[in-house]
Amino acid sequence: MIVAVLRAELRLPEAFTLKDKRSVVKSLVQRTAQRFRASAAEVGLQNDVRRALVGVAVVSTSAAHADSVLRSALGFMEGTYPVDVVSGEVEHR
After folding, report:
1. CATH number, domain at 20?
2. What is the tally of structural domains in the chain?
3. In a domain, 82, yes or no
4. Could you report the per-residue pLDDT of 13-67, keeping only the tens digit for each?
5. Measuring CA to CA, which residue among 84, 10, 91, 15 is closest to residue 53?
6. Largest Cα span, the chain
7. Mind giving me the DSSP string for 51-78?
């Protein structure tokens, strides 16, 4: 069993208030979890208006498959939402 975790730091250039940020991040987390059948949550930087830290976790039988799912999830976030990926680190546990 492979557990892979993506830790993505995102910049939100169009967010000017915490309300703006939270609406984007909430949708991003929900849609990412549904689309990739993963667990996702905002895990840090909650009070920073322009940045968010999102965690996504996947359980798989293959490290390559888990990596592929998480890289696709990162691309989905960047391509679908008004965010810039500052960093995206994948680790296996």
Report:
1. 3.30.70.1120
2. 1
3. yes
4. 999 999 999 999 999 999 999 999 999 999 999 999 999 999 999 999 999 999 9
5. 10
6. 42
7. EEEEEEEEEES-HHHHHHHHHHHHHHHH
